[in-house]
Specification:
4-stranded antiparallel beta sheet, 22% strand, alpha/beta, 320 residues, binds iron/sulfur cluster, 8-stranded mixed beta sheet
Length: 320
């Protein structure tokens, strides 16, 4: 049983002119205890919608999310069982995720109450702050007295206070300056290893993902294009979109972006292309790609991809 298990998840929004937009169009993904799973893809690919649905901030339009074997109760519909409050979220913007009018200690104490309600020994707000590298006297101060990187440490301390089993971190480093980004990513990794919890790390920063993720899932236009152990996926990507992403990493600024030779932008999710969603941009496309949607399937042990060409290549390899 996976710690966090996402099955055939769909998230739809009402778009312009009454069109429904399927931001997440049938995703399977799981996070195990002690594991960092990275979800990567371009802006607009649906990864943040997936993250919000994974913690119950938005209700899925289809599929399921289970946490520790039980269906996740969406936030706001009913009181969430204490056990499910062990699934915590760290947001992109540490400026807006903290209440500017309450002390840091007060805000961290909310998480402490979750641990106490679960009958567990709780860390004090000061202990939580120490764990994330901040002084204990920060408890009496307010968010505006801290830098962006420090505020993200405070947001992590607040999540830690609940003694989480799993954290979903949605672009937790993208609003920070370069010096704080690696420090926050390393802090999250340290905490995962120390507490043996799970982490779903949603990011477009491929260089950081490569360093910290055990498993990488590549998302394109609402679907998972490829997933597998990070070491293997980064060494030899199977899907043409993964190849394009990974080929973009050696940039002077150290941050991966799509290379200039991949044409166009992510298409409008309210009118996805027929067949393979990636076909209008894919350098490897063949005629079937325009008409038939590829099914994601295991092509190598522990590695799956949704691509007609890769599937044919590995089917051929297995019979040679
Ligand atoms: Fe490219 Fe075709 Fe594979 Fe899609 S199915 S990624 S278009 S080769």
């Amino acid at each position: 049983m996976s710690l966090l298990d996402i099955r055939d998840l769909e998230v739809s929004y009402a778009g312009h002119a009454g069109k429904s937009v399927r931001a997440v169009a049938g995703v399977d993904l799981s996070v195990e205890r002690g594991q960092v799973v990275a979800l990567v893809g371009e802006s607009g690919c649906g990864k943040s919608s997936l993250g919000k649905a994974a913690v119950g901030l938005i209700a899925p339009s289809g599929g399921s999310v289970t946490f520790q074997g039980e269906p996740l109760v969406p936030l706001g519909r009913a009181a969430r069982p204490v056990k499910q409050r062990k699934l915590q979220m760290v947001f992109q913007d540490p400026y807006s995720s903290l209440n500017p009018r309450r002390t840091i200690g007060d805000q961290i104490a909310e998480g402490t109450r979750v641990a106490l309600a679960a009958g567990e020994a709780a860390m004090s707000p000061g202990e939580c702050l120490e764990r994330v590298g901040l002084p204990t006297d920060a408890v009496s101060r307010f968010p505006h007295q801290f830098s962006g990187g420090q505020r993200q440490r405070i947001a992590i301390a607040r999540a830690l206070a609940a003694r989480p089993e799993c954290i979903v971190a949605d672009e937790p480093i993208s609003a920070l300056d370069a010096s704080a980004q690696a420090a926050i990513a390393n802090l999250l990794l340290e905490i995962v290893r120390e507490l043996d919890m799970g982490l779903l790390f949603i990011s477009h920063d491929l260089a950081i993902v490569r360093k910290i993720a055990d498993v990488t899932a590549v998302m394109y236009l609402g679907k998972i294009a490829e997933t597998g152990p990070s070491r293997d996926l980064w060494a030899e990507p199977l899907h043409p979109y993964s190849k394009a992403l990974i080929g973009a990493i050696p940039r002077p600024d150290g941050r991966g972006r799509l290379p200039a030779d991949l044409p166009g932008d992510v298409p409008d999710p309210s009118a996805p292309p027929s067949g393979c969603r990636f076909h209008p941009r894919c350098p490897a496309a063949i005629p079937i790609c325009r008409t038939d949607e590829p099914r994601r399937q295991e092509l190598l042990p522990g590695r799956s991809a949704a691509c007609h060409v890769a599937a044919a290549q590995f089917a051929g390899a297995s019979t040679n």
